[in-house]
Write a structure and sequence with these properties.
The chain is an alpha+beta fold. The chain is built from 7 helices and 8 strands, in the order H-H-H-H-E-H-E-H-E-E-E-E-E-H-E. The longest helix is centred in the N-terminal third of the chain and has 29 residues, at 14-42.
Amino acid sequence: MVRPRKHAFRMTKPSTNLWCACLATVALVAVSALFAQRTVATGQSAFADPQLTTTKDGTPDFLRLDSPADRAAFRQWFAAIVEYEALRPAAELPAEINDCAALLRYAYRGALHAHTQVWLDENSLEALAFLPSVKKYAYPHTPLGPALFRIRPPSASENPKSAFAEFADARTLVQFNTFLVSRDVRLALPGDVLFYRQLEQNSPYHSITFVGRSQLLKGEDADDPILVYHTGPIEKSPGEMRRVQLSQLLQHPSPRWRPVPGNGNFLGVYRWNILRESN
């Protein structure tokens, strides 16, 4: 049987240490009570970072684009990136764009990125260098780093760093990162997203980006807006990018893809939460 070793603790100035310990205990109890009172009074975690203030849609204020100029810049970049990916040769499409939600994530990050010459060269987007950039912040330099997408319902006591992620599927994007504008496609603006729910498919949620008037091709009918989407995998093929005009989509051979109020599969026109204007 091995006897446990005895640890000798050298007590130095016992009265002073005891007094410090008592003070620390009292201070801790007081602080805990203060934080508890704040939590009860406000309904929010007292440990929440004041910079992470969110509105009811769960978007932190530091991510929301407050100025009209920034909102316009985001729209231009988002719509241009989506359209550019549809126009470039299929072999040059970034590997990460493999379905409709991947296209949204790619364009969203790109629209918020610092559009340096190096970044333009690396992403083969030199053709978009003429567009103005968002000024408020540049991806990935945010308090949440590269985690731009909310992945769960907002909660008063949540830790924002665990509520946002780099990945979000189509369902998560429509539920937690956008808001419904209308089921009338005529009210869509460049950068808005048309969402569908096709229950007969394995992946029911799908998206189509409203580009509006092309920023890249001249001479097209300005009264017939452009829309772009990725089909996602089709049987054994990886799918493809498609660029269509609104008139074509309204006459789609399959009525379930027509963006009209009478189509129960069409959820409506949605807008990114960061573009929501304050009342």
